[in-house]
Design goal:
single chain; alpha+beta; four-stranded antiparallel sheet; 6 helices; 10 strands; about 20% strand; DNA-binding
Length: about 280
DNA sequence: ACCACTACCTGAAGGC
DNA sequence: TGCCTTCAGGTAGTGG
């Protein structure tokens, strides 16, 4: 689920019940996700007002009134679900076995973090030195921000002898791309996933930068529309999954008008890449 | 500095 | 129905 567009969609879904709201109660129902929660995790969250809910790459960042920021990563299977007030209080639904963190805010709302695989992670860190947190310190530029450009990407690719597919998954090169949107962006740019990163021309890198921005923006817009039903901020792929051009479409016809080719799947560093051999060189 | 590979964990899906 | 294998959107740590 969670690459940059999904995390941004989750952020937008959570903002109305978190930003400017106070966390009236916090509960961690186990001691860890991928790593242990920080000391006194729930206590440090309880009673805090959320000043701002942001995002950096695939991390959600909730800046708290007391000077700390909650960092959250959804891993592979993490999701936040929001329930509003029903009659007086919340539904008396029993937490499921994969519901690991529960936050209640004075929106009022109950926010449940669910993560079957527990590849997700949460931490608390002083807001003043947030960029120094080990999860953020080496992270590359935001692809939709001013820090990402043809020149910046070209510099990052200069010494990389790996296929462009693998290099784009490296979060220190550019933040927020994952296996789906790398495939989609490479298709959009007409670049073969096996293309050696450092051999790419500036013109092709420029096309890639544009493709990354286009694909991510389209996905965020589509994700936004799935939030109309905001009772469940499901971290699902939203409607954009119906717009994938290559991801998950092995052996289906290429989506480009006039192309008679079919989508191929190859494995690169143990992960699937989807592409059209006619359109991508 | 870079690269290939492994591990972490559970559930879904497909083959038999 | 059930058992087995394979695969899944991520990242950190290892050793070359």
């Amino acid at each position: 689920m969670p690459e940059l567009p999904e995390v941004e969609t989750v952020r937008r879904g959570l903002a109305p019940v978190m930003e400017g709201r106070r966390i009236t109660n916090a509960e961690a129902r186990r001691p860890d996700l991928r790593w242990p929660f920080p000391e006194r995790f729930a206590e440090r969250l309880s009673g805090q007002r959320v000043l701002h809910l942001g995002r950096r790459g695939k991390y959600l960042l909730a800046e708290l009134e007391g000077g700390e920021t909650l960092l959250a990563h959804l891993g592979m299977s993490g999701r936040f679900q929001v329930e509003g007030e029903v009659v007086g209080r919340f539904h008396h639904t029993q937490p499921g076995k994969h519901d690991h963190v529960i936050l209640e805010t004075d929106a009022p709302a109950r926010i449940t973090y669910t993560d079957p695989r527990r590849f997700g992670a949460m931490d608390l860190w002083p807001s003043a030195t947030l960029e120094g947190h080990r999860w953020l310190t080496a992270m590359g530029p935001e692809p939709l921000g001013n820090g990402f450009s043809t020149a910046v990407l070209a510099e990052a690719l200069r010494r990389r002898s790996s296929p462009i597919k693998q290099v784009l998954l490296d979060q220190t090169v550019v933040a927020g791309l994952g296996n789906i949107y790398v495939s989609e962006a490479l298709f959009h740019a007409g670049i073969h996933p096996s293309c050696v990163a450092q051999k790419m021309s500036v013109a092709r890198i420029n096309r890639l930068v544009e493709a990354i921005r286009t694909v991510l923006c389209a996905a965020i817009e589509a994700g936004g529309s799935s939030l109309r039903d905001h009772r469940q901020t499901n971290g699902d792929l939203g409607y954009f999954q119906h717009s994938f051009q290559v991801y998950g479409r092995e052996s289906q016809a290429c989506a480009r008008a006039g192309c008679a080719g079919a989508v191929h799947r190859i494995t690169q560093s143990g992960r699937s890449s989807f592409f059209c051999p006619h359109c991508q060189r």
